[in-house]
Amino acid sequence: MPSSLSLIRLPALSIVDLVGADATAILHNLTTNDVKKLTTDGPHRAGLETFITNVRGKCLGHVVVFATENGYRMIGAPGVVATADNAGTVRQSQAIAEHADRYTIREDATPVIRDEELAAWMVVDGDEEPVQTTPLPSMTDQDGVESYQLPWVKSGTLFLLPVDTAAEHPSLIAERLGLDPETLATGDVSDFHAHRVAAGFPWFGIDVTDAHLPQEADRETQTISFTKGCYLGQETVARLDALGQVQKKLVRWKLSGLPAGAGPAADDKLRALDASEDAKPVGRITSVGRINDQGEGLAMGYARRSHFEAGAKLAGQISAGDVGDVAYTAEVLPPVLGDSPE
After folding, report:
1. Total structural domains in the chain?
2. What's the CATH code of the domain at 96?
3. Fewest beta carbons less than 10 Å away: which of 27, 85, 146, 318?
4. Segments forming the whole domain that contains residue 253
5. Cα distance between residue 180 and residue 173, in whole Å
6. Do strands 6-10 and 185-186 pair parallel, antiparallel, or not at all (unpaired)?
7. Do 72 and 159 belong together in one domain?
8. Beta partners for 75?
9. Which InterPro entries does the annotation name (predicted)?
10. Which phi and psi angles does 291 have, rounded to 5°?
């Protein structure tokens, strides 16, 4: 009987191991969440979602973190970050490693980039309908094979396996899941991102960049501890919390009125429903999910404060070949909920 699971090989992720006796102190000083709570007790380990902030409180990185026997593992999107001198860009993993090095003086803490050593496989279950809750990060070690439950999708498992044995990975993963490899369907990266958009998870370098503040991603319940103490950029984060709402926020939109199977593109703009064509946009799309045959789908992007509450409706327009310009509606969905780290 066919399985409802799909196996997707992801492009190389950003994977950084911070190792050494002082890894906890260094990572604590660079992250918005309370990584000191993480432990290596038992075969099932809890993780945390966190931003890594620079001195201005901007998002240098967005990762899930797990404690390891000699430090911590950070896992995130490949991402692109501007170099410190703004002369170019680097992957998120390199930016995190250089950031940790910059603030490590005499401490025993060394960042090790593992991007090219580990192949990333995502097993996704279920449909692409939007959700309001996603699983907490957790990791399981079974016979030396580590698997991760992450809030990237509403139901799925990430496997990180040695890249030099990649040909064996589908069979190994099917065995771990108790499945016949022939029943495990294969998907592609577009399938993963459709599930990710449904789960409302921002992909660093696409939906969140080093130009954004943590609160603009609308995941502060999942990512920010306001009681952990000082860290780099903490003053900006705390000040914004004290002053109130941000001026723009990452949201999910339910799209309707589109041509069957055709959708908007990243960076397309949205306007208020009653606005003229030359009016200033109040929304910008960053990620688009799958569009069905009824012309409905999901997208993520930034909405201005006047239009980021659930239920707010915006208008967009796309060119659809022989049909010409087609107007569609984007309605803000409720935010994704998560457990507080406090």
Report:
1. 2
2. 3.30.1360.120
3. 85
4. 247-342
5. 10
6. parallel
7. yes
8. 15, 64
9. TrmE/GcvT-like, YgfZ/GCV_T_CS, YgfZ/GcvT
10. -105, 125
Residues 6+ apart with CB under 8 A from 165: none
Contact 288/299 with Cβ under 8 angstroms?
yes
Q: Summarize the confidence of residues 100-111 as an average pLDDT.
A: 96
pLDDT given at position 63: 98
Residue 317 covered by a domain: yes
Q: Which residues contact 84 (CB under 8 A, 6 or more apart)?
A: 98, 102
Would you give the end-to-end CA distance of the chain in angstroms?
Answer: 44
Which residues are within 8 A (CB) of 302 and not within 5 positions of it... i.e. 6 or more apart?
216, 248, 249, 250, 251, 283, 284, 286
Question: Can you tell me the distance from the alpha carbon of 281 to that of 65, in angstroms, rounded to the nearest whole number?
Answer: 36
Q: Give CA–CA dist 320/132, Å, rounded.
A: 31
Cβ-Cβ contacts under 8 Å for 264 (sequence gap 6 or more):
255, 258, 285, 288, 299, 316, 318, 328
Both tokens of 117, joined, read: 């050593």
**Contact of 326 with 318, CB cutoff 8 Å:** yes
Contact 124, 156 (CB under 8 A): yes
8 Å CB contact between 17 and 114: yes
Within-domain flag for 165 = yes
Q: What tokens were used for 204?
A: 């660093």
pLDDT digits (tens, 9 = 90+) for 32-43: 999 999 999 888
| Residues 223-261: tens digit of each pLDDT | 999 999 999 999 999 999 998 879 999 999 999 999 988
Dihedral class, residue 208 (left if φ above 0, else alpha if ψ from -120 to 50, else beta): beta
